[in-house]
Automatic annotation (TrEMBL), chain B:
Domain ABC transporter, residue spans: 25-265
GO molecular function: ATP binding; ATP hydrolysis activity
Superkingdom, taxonomy of origin: Bacteria
The keyword ATP-binding is assigned to this record: yes
Keyword Ligase attributed: no
Keywords: ATP-binding, Nucleotide-binding, Transport
Any one of the GO CC terms: plasma membrane
Name of the protein this chain belongs to: ABC transporter ATP-binding protein
Length: 370, 269, 539
């Protein structure tokens, strides 16, 4: 039994925390009336729902960067693709309630004088199909990019800049109206999801709970991966890719695999994010937002899954506070964080918990002795 | 894609070099040049099955480049390299060559510093190197025994759960040798195994390598002449990218050509 | 009563200035004329030899000539940014302060009167003593001809001394003939103008051909048939010539874009090539250079023409200094950790951007172009080279070769190259690699600053100016092959050209995307770029 606990590591703690938060938030939001001291406003629920999406995204970034050493400056692209897939579905859910009242076409297409949906919008009214797309679209992009980049052994700084170039190119593309994704404005004005109004408190709570569940599942999946032998191969690739090759593994295949898994997680995070914030636009592709994700992980502690979650929540919370009080200062703070963390705190917040690290080592010991 | 990495590999696992002629490695007329500099110049070398061969030569003689060519890191401009008679190494990448049964120990010990000694050995263990197999991999009793055995051989039982990065230089050398053993290769390429080892450790390494020969074929690159003398049955001298002389240690030592270009230099130091 | 007033006013003016002559009297009569009887007065004004004639007529034509309600003084007005009107005395050019529009009345015109004025101005210009003015006037007629001006041209062409002007006049007359002449005349013109590159000629020919095409072939006269073949071949020939010039023009645009890329990338080529670290704040070094130009211009508003020459070294020093600070303050602590360097320098880039926003406001600033940079060199009617782009190409190449010479010839350059190839070895040979790093970084950043000076001449200066250049620069460097300055040159120029050749086909955004994606694909195929460094130490 003790062995099992050690093997699970931080998994029960994280899942427990998520469960308690969800329970607390939903009870306090639904059971206590507005004005009560215990009431949690729907605004707060949505805000924290957003943070949890970021946390899932941070997990995805940590999986490739912290464990495999691939510094992706383009995870925003996967996040946004997942978000757009969800947005397309929500767009079709609007039906004839749009400004132009067209039952088939979203408003922006009517505005552009299009008379039919483009082919890639086919099936966008099916929830299941679009949920497949949520993982398939980012997964495919990651697979194509990853296969080409890793096969030709592009790595390090080169790879980082290329991921940034890809997301930059996608941003430019999505800004174009001709792309059929709403151009500048993106997709917005959603009404409901699966027939439930997006404005209602219950839907918001349900979305929050779904996000928390997916975060817990995502954490469990990542935990399983990094603690498997495959995870150790990945860590070995991070430390010395060539050496791994000489003992018979194909690092490029492992890298592609982990990159695709990570992209899919990011896509799911994007899909959960869109109904909660109510909009998806090309700004999500901007290189800056991708690099912000990296800073969450850097601050939380890369190579530590719970660190990534803490980092995402702490930094996003700080951003919310900062931009409310003095918007000017946020970029200074963010920039300063980049410099300070890389210089002084290479292991991030998670590095603050040496006790936990020690427990980690004990766990390995126990594993071997068994 | 990931599937592809899993199943076809099983076939590769089955690649067995054809050594009916008693030769396990053929290197024929190989040339490699970097920007006009000929690192290997029309080099030919044959390693017999079960043989322990020492490669010596001054810096820049092409020893490491030769290792690189055999293990797939560098592609030769011309020439043929095959494992046994039929396995053409030039068509395979590093991972495939490793899986076919050629292990390499690097000049500079490279172990996975953030993994424990145990995990380093676990990763090196022969077996399926595909993604899915490793994702759901559980160490079998047999494999655990094997690792325990190797730990014993390399004298790192106590350090089993230490991070490899915390090992001393000599211990890292041993760990690398251990990783080599875990992979159970047919052919071992060992680049400067005793650099940084104490006299005692050197002696143990010599013993180990000698005992490996027979079941395995071993190629050792070494600068330490005393060490070479202690293990070598057959020595190949490389000079400026090609084979200068080949023979027993005493033959080599009396070869005037060799004395001039290599041993002569060394005594001059 | 009104006239008496005017008269007294003009007398009054006459007493003010000895120049208050006939011409002033004519102009001062403008307020009193109605639409019906203003034309003779305008003709009188036009016929007057006074130099101010054209100004007055142009102001009327543009609807900017007013008179004050209280004293009937004729003024020209310009709208000020605050919505008021700036008054100028048309006769003396004196500044009369601002006034509201309600206190003034416009000198009325109609379409017909305006066309008369245009004719009058054309005549004025066509007989101007300066050949360039005459040439400009003929050009205008060529673009919008009417019967009266053509008639005027026919009279003037015989007297014209300047051959260029005379040729152009012939062309204009020819174009008119193509429209209105008979078949023989047209045929003659089509033969005569087959080498002309004037767009108006081509348009007229195409129009004629279209007219002829409408008529049944059998109904065409022999001359018309001949005219038709003549026109077709002339149009083809013109088309051919145009496509050649179009190509040259694209090439030129491409090279000028390439020069900007070269300037932006070359600094990165040095820092990345030598130190192996990527400075994500490189774009901000460019931005700092651009702002330095802006500040220098603010400091010396009277020397706009020459301030660039101060700005270039100043930008080099400012950006170079910041670069050295970054290297000493952050990068040297992150040796051997390129990804961390990337993140830290990205943080620095955010701080620098925000700093600029705080100091200069987030709004874009305009840097004025000096006189000698504006304008263009008109090589022929359809092809001109703008001076600013031409100078930028020359300047970029100068910087490139200066840097190349520095790297190849100077001892510091030798040290830099030594460190780039083998840091340990260089150190063993007592090259102070720390100092070399700092200098390299300063040099790379300084050149980025110079790129900023150039960019300030092409676009507005804003905090985000440099941001997009980091990706482009990096791709240029990698495309050309890291550590190879010539590669950077070739890469920058070819990317610039590819971009400009794609642009007409796809639009600029799509061209940008295509080039980006193409580059990403290329680098995946050949990670070492066009001109890789070979050798054992290369990996």
């Amino acid at each position: 039994m003790a062995d099992l606990f050690k093997k699970l590591g931080s998994l029960p703690v994280v899942v427990g925390c998520l469960f308690i938060t969800t329970l607390y938030v939903s009870v306090c939001n639904l059971a206590f009336p507005e004005g009560s001291a215990l009431h949690v406003s729907t605004y707060t629920v949505t805000l924290f729902g957003k943070y949890l999406c970021y946390a899932l995204l941070a997990l995805a970034v940590d999986l490739v960067w912290g464990y495999c050493g691939i510094l992706s400056l383009g995870h925003g692209a996967f996040f946004a693709l997942g978000g757009y897939a969800m947005g397309m579905y929500l767009m079709r859910q609007i039906g004839d309630r749009g400004v132009y009242g067209n039952p088939e076409l979203p408003d922006f297409m009517v505005f552009l004088n299009w008379d039919a949906l483009p082919w890639y919008w086919a099936g966008s009214d099916s929830f299941i199909w679009m949920m497949v797309m949520v993982v398939a679209a980012p997964g495919l992009l990651a697979y194509i990019f990853g296969t080409m980049a890793f096969r030709s052994r592009v790595s390090g700084v080169y790879l980082s800049i290329m991921t940034q170039a890809v997301t930059y190119a996608l941003m430019l593309a999505f800004f174009r109206n001709e792309m059929g994704f709403g151009g500048n404005n993106g997709l917005t004005d959603f009404k409901d999801i699966l027939g439930f109004s997006l404005q209602s408190d219950t839907t918001r709570i349900a979305l929050f709970a779904t996000t928390a569940t997916f975060l817990a599942i995502g954490f469990a999946v990542c935990h399983f991966i990094v603690n498997s032998k495959m995870g150790r191969v990945v860590t070995a690739i991070r430390d010395s890719e060539n050496r791994v090759r000489f003992i018979g593994y194909k690092p490029e295949n492992y890298k592609v695999w982990i990159f695709v898994v990570s992209a899919m997680l990011a896509g799911i995070a994007g899909a959960l994010y869109v109904p909660q914030v109510g909009i998806i636009n090309p700004g999500e592709f901007s290189p800056l937002s991708s690099i912000e994700m990296v800073v969450w992980v850097a601050i939380g502690g890369r190579g530590s899954l719970y660190g990534a979650i803490i980092g995402a929540i702490v930094v996003s919370y700080a951003k919310t506070r900062f931009t409310a009080i003095m918007p000017e200062a946020w970029l200074y703070a963010l920039g300063g964080l980049f410099v300070l963390v890389t210089l002084l705190l290479p292991k991030g917040i998670a590095g603050f918990f040496p006790a936990i690290a020690a427990r980690f080592n004990q766990k390995k010991l126990a594993e071997v002795k068994s | 894609m990931s599937r592809e990495a899993g199943s076809p590999l099983l076939e590769e696992e089955n690649i067995k070099p054809d050594t009916r002629h008693g030769v396990i490695l053929y290197v024929e007329d190989v040339s490699v040049s970097f920007d006009g500099f000929k690192a290997l110049n029309d080099l030919s070398l044959y390693i017999n099955d079960g043989e322990l061969r020492c490669l010596i030569g001054a810096n820049g003689a092409g020893k490491t480049t030769l290792m690189d060519v055999i293990t797939g890191k560098t592609r030769p401009d011309v020439g043929k390299v095959s494992f046994g008679q039929q396995v053409n190494l030039l068509e395979m990448d590093e991972a495939q060559i490793a899986r076919a049964g050629i292990g390499r120990k690097f000049q500079k010990p490279t172990v996975f510093e953030n993994l424990t000694v145990f995990e380093n050995l676990e990763l090196s263990l022969h077996g399926d190197k595909g993604i899915w197999a490793n994702l759901f991999h559980k160490l079998s009793g047999e494999q655990s025994d094997e690792i325990a055995q190797i730990l014993h051989t390399i004298g790192l039982v106590g350090e089993c759960n230490m991070q490899a990065g915390a090992l001393s230089h000599g211990q890292k050398q041993w760990l690398e040798i251990g990783m080599l053993l875990a992979a159970k290769p047919r052919l071992l390429l060992v680049d400067e195994p005793v650099a940084g080892m104490t006299a005692q450790e050197t002696e143990r390494t010599a013993e180990l390598l000698t005992s490996l020969a027979g079941d395995h074929s071993v190629v050792v690159v070494e600068h330490d002449m005393a060490f070479v003398r202690s293990i070598a049955r057959k020595v190949t001298v490389l000079h400026q990218g090609s084979v200068l002389a080949e023979g027993s240690m005493s033959e080599i030592q009396s070869n005037p050509e060799v004395v001039r270009v290599y041993l002569g230099e060394e005594t001059g130091e | 009563m009104l006239r008496i007033f005017c008269l007294t006013l003009s007398i009054l003016l006459a007493s003010f200035s000895a120049q208050a002559d006939e011409f002033s009297q004519l102009v001062n009569q403008l307020p009193s004329k109605s639409l019906r009887n203003i034309t003779p007065l305008l003709e009188q004004i036009a016929a007057h030899p006074d130099e101010r004639t054209k100004t007055v007529l142009t102001e009327i034509l543009n609807g900017d000539l007013y008179y004050k309600k209280n004293n009937k003084q004729v003024v020209s007005i310009r709208k000020t940014p605050d919505g008021d009107y700036q008054l100028t005395d048309v006769l003396t050019g004196d500044d009369l302060g601002t006034a509201s529009k309600s206190s003034m009345k416009k000198v009325k015109t109609s379409n017909r009167i305006r066309s008369t004025i245009r004719g009058l101005i054309a005549q004025l210009d066509l007989t101007h003593k300066n050949a360039e003015v005459r040439l400009a006037a003929v050009k205008q007629i060529l673009d919008s001809p009417d019967d009266e001006t053509i008639e005027l041209l026919t009279q003037l062409v015989t007297k014209e001394q300047d051959s260029t002007v005379a040729d152009l006049m012939q062309t204009a007359i020819g174009v008119n003939t193509l429209k209105n002449g008979n078949a023989e005349e047209k045929l003659a013109v089509a033969k005569a103008l087959r080498d002309s590159l004037q767009p108006a000629v081509r348009n007229a020919m195409v129009n004629q051909l279209a007219l002829l095409d409408e008529v049944e072939k059998s109904q065409l006269s022999a001359t018309e048939k001949q005219l038709k073949t003549e026109l077709t071949s002339a149009i083809d020939k013109i088309k051919q010539k145009r496509s050649i010039y179009e190509f040259i023009e694209n090439m030129f645009f491409g090279l000028s874009l390439g020069s900007v890329l070269l300037l932006a990338a070359i600094g990165l080529a040095i820092t990345f090539g030598v130190m192996g670290v990527i400075n994500m704040a490189h774009g901000e070094m460019i931005m700092l250079g651009a702002y330095t130009t802006y500040v220098i211009q603010l400091m010396f508003p009277q020397w706009i023409d020459y301030s660039l020459f101060i700005a270039i070294p100043a930008a080099f020093l400012v950006s170079g200094f910041v670069g050295v600070l970054i290297e000493r303050g952050v990068i040297r602590f992150l040796k051997g950790r390129p990804l961390e360097t990337l993140l830290a320098t990205f943080g620095i880039s955010l701080i620098l951007q925000q700093l600029v926003r705080t100091i200069f406001s987030p709004l874009n600033r305009t840097v004025a172009a000096p006189e000698w940079m504006s304008g263009s060199w008109q090589i022929n009617p359809i092809f001109s080279i703008t001076y600013n782009r031409l100078y930028i190409i020359i300047f970029a190449l100068t910087v490139f070769f200066a840097l190349l010479a520095f790297m190849k010839r100077s001892s510091l350059g030798l040290h830099v190259r030594a460190v780039a190839q083998n840091r340990e070895m260089a150190r063993a040979l007592s090259v102070r690699s720390d100092r070399v790093d700092a200098i390299t970084f300063g040099l790379g950043s300084g050149i980025a600053g110079i790129a900023g000076v150039v960019l300030s001449q092409l676009t507005n200066v804003g905090p985000n100016l440099g941001q997009s250049y980091i990706i482009d620069s990096f791709l240029v460097v990698v495309f050309g092959g890291v550590g190879n300055l010539w590669g950077t040159l070739v890469a920058a120029m070819s990317l610039g050209s590819i971009n400009k050749f794609l642009e007409p086909l796809t639009g600029s955004v799509l061209a940008n995307i295509i080039v980006l994606v193409g580059l990403v694909l290329f680098i995946q195929k050949r990670p070492k770029g066009l001109f890789p460094q070979k050798g054992r130490s290369a990996d």
